[in-house]
Amino acid sequence: MRITFLGTAAAEGWPALFCECRACQRAREKGGKNIRSRSSALINNDLLIDFPPDTYMHTISNGIFLSRIKYLLITHSHQDHFYLEDLALRAPPFAHIEGKKILRIFGNQSVVGRIKNHRLEGDKTMIECRVLRSFEEVKIEEYRVLALRADHQEGEECLIYLVNNKGKTLLWGTDTGFFPEDAWAALKKRKVDIAVLDTTSGPHSTPGYHMGIPEIIKVREKMIKEGVADGKTLFIATHFSHNGGLLHEELEEVLQPYGIIPAYDGFQINI
Ligand SMILES: [Zn+2]
Ligand SMILES: [Zn+2]
Ligand SMILES: [Zn+2]
User: Fold this and answer.
1) How far is the CA of 235 from the centre of ligand 3 (A)?
2) pLDDT on residue 31
3) Looking at residue 47, what is its pLDDT?
4) Which of 41, 144, 199, 258 could be a cystine partner for 237, CB 3.0 to 4.6 Å?
5) Ligand 3 centre from 97 Cα, in Å?
6) What percent of the chain has pLDDT over 90?
7) Is 271 among the domain residues?
8) Which domain holds residue 48?
9) Nearest to residue 69, comparing CAs of 35, 37, 106, 36?
10) Which ligand is nearest to the CA of 209?
11) Cβ neighbours, 10 Å, residue 99
């Protein structure tokens, strides 16, 4: 399984859209891995996780033909993960797609409800969508996907995902606070090869909604203790907010002793 991190920032991007703070100024000055767009990842070359407003830019900078992406997993309806308006551009005259290339979208009720309300499912867009509920497992051709309940937005069934492909398992863990008990229970029977964890708050601790370094260290410890992970499991931090303040090299330094790697835009892993 190949994982390409397309975007590794929280909702506002880093440097943030309108921000003049010190962390954003430093990111602008240093550039490189400190420039972070909104969160998304490409699995192999046909499965996309989340659809942020920066997807257009991701296709350009990574040479991705979005028309050829077959499956899209959406974690929740926040705008930095689900930029609904751009899905309308999959229909003519905005897009001319050769042959019947269906995009199958999986998400919670809120996500799928909005696609249907905007009439974006159908022959013109060639979009099909399906609601996934927490703890539901689906087979999507060569992928097996288990949706787990996140601790995030009240009133919405936000999801994190376990994606299995050819014997390797990815845990996609944004946006969420420390995992809820029932998610831990579902994870207990599984083995994860790569765990991607919400690190929105950087060095700060956050109760619920998102995580910071103190929480992802605890997640890693618990995963190892419960046999969900072992010494070979890769732990990757992502979804960074400027309010965390640590630039990429500083994150590397802080996370290295815990065996956690900070992601950056364009970071690619083969497992
Ligand atoms: Zn987010
Ligand atoms: Zn800022
Ligand atoms: Zn969110």
Assistant:
1) 21
2) 98
3) 98
4) 199
5) 31
6) 99
7) no
8) 2-265
9) 106
10) 3
11) 6
